[in-house]
Amino acid sequence: MDFETVNAPEFGRSLRGIGVNLVSPDVRALANFLSKVFNIAVHQLSEDFAIAENDGAVFQLHADGTYGAHPLLGLVPENPPRGVGAQFYLFNSDPDKAEKAANNAGFVVLEETANKPHGLRECTILSPEGYAFSPAVAHNE
What we know:
Number of domains: 1
Low-confidence stretches: none
CATH topology: 2,3-Dihydroxybiphenyl 1,2-Dioxygenase, domain 1
Strand content: 25-35%
Structural class: alpha/beta
Radius of gyration: 15 Å
CATH architecture: Roll
CATH class: Alpha Beta
CATH superfamily: 2,3-Dihydroxybiphenyl 1,2-Dioxygenase, domain 1
Mean pLDDT: 91
Helix content: 10-25%
Order of helices and strands: HEHEEEEHEEE
């Protein structure tokens, strides 16, 4: 599927498994974060929406306004960090490179890169909304 040209109904009908929508006051800023820090491909970027693709997994970015009639929007806190409690692992994403990119771009590295007892080398970086992204690769130590 060509994520740059697919229309909304066709894209919607193609979705399977678990879907993730990240609601953001600034879709472009969130897309910039994902692209710069994790090299995630961003498609159909606009003020209201984007498709994000990482290692075959697809998720969506939606502006607050697109949730205008959805009851979830009323639960989103006015003040950041609004994404607290959500952690998104980006498997096969180099945590050392992501941590360096986040530091260089001024994003918050919540947890520095380390080998964990569960077999992953990972770190945790906060998006502008406070969503926790953890790039992770397998390690053998």
